[in-house]
Amino acid sequence: MVNRRKLYGPLELVDGRWAVGDSALPGGRWVQFREDGMVPHTGDAPGEVIRWAGVMEGITLQIGRYSYRAGFPVTSGFDGFWSRKPGVGRLFLTLRHPYEYRTVTFDRHPHRYSATQLLLTAQLMVNTVADGEAHRLGDPEWLSRAIGRLEAVTSWPLGRGPEAVVRAALETAD
User: For residue range 61-119, what is the model confidence (pLDDT) as tens digits?
Assistant: First the structure.
């Protein structure tokens, strides 16, 4: 399945498409971003397509006991991004037509995710959905440009949160 992978936090570029989670883990769970929507996988078996048009109110990213939404982590423990233990992450979605909450689980990569990458990845998903552009997450070229801009960010000035950093990156990704 995997020829070449590029990683940014929980995101990985696999064979020309972005995904969340470790797609190389045998029998693992991961979520592929496609043009028509996100597709949860278990091993090589794809699940139901969650259409981009149905995603509303952003996407919340959870790693360990940390949830990343609207630019800051909501903590309830200490085993989040720095853990090297195998574990899972989750994407929490609010969908329309019919209105429902959905949780999509994925397996973490066997390395630590940096706090900066987690915050910026979560904010990227929130901003993109809030701007009515959720479908762009399924555009591998656009998402590669956006992530390329975010890769250069290691910190930001006090008083300027992740939302402003991601907005600046998205302006230059277009």
Answer: 888 765 555 444 443 333 444 455 568 899 999 998 888 999 999 998 888 888 888 88
Q: What distances in angstroms separate CA 6 from CA 2, 11, 132, 160, 171, one per listed residue?
A: 11, 8, 27, 28, 23
pTM for this entry? 0.84
Task: Give burial (CB, 10 Å; 0-12/13-18/19+) of 158.
Answer: exposed
**Residues forming beta bridges with residue 38, ordered by sequence position:** 33, 50
Q: For the chain, what is the total number of helices (H) and then of strands (E)?
A: 3, 12
For residues 64 and 59, what is the distance between their CA atoms, to the nearest angstrom?
A: 16
Domain locations along the chain: 51-173
- d(CA 92, CA 103) in angstroms, rounded, equals 5
Task: Decide: 27 and 42 in contact? Cβ < 8 Å.
Answer: yes
Please, which contacts does 16-21 make with residues 24 or more away whose CB atoms are closer than 8 Å? Answer: 16/140, 17/140, 18/137, 18/140, 18/143, 18/144, 20/89, 20/91, 20/106, 21/89, 21/106, 21/107, 21/108, 21/109
Q: In what order do the strands lie in the sheet containing 72-74?
A: 72-74, 66-69, 55-63, 88-95, 100-107
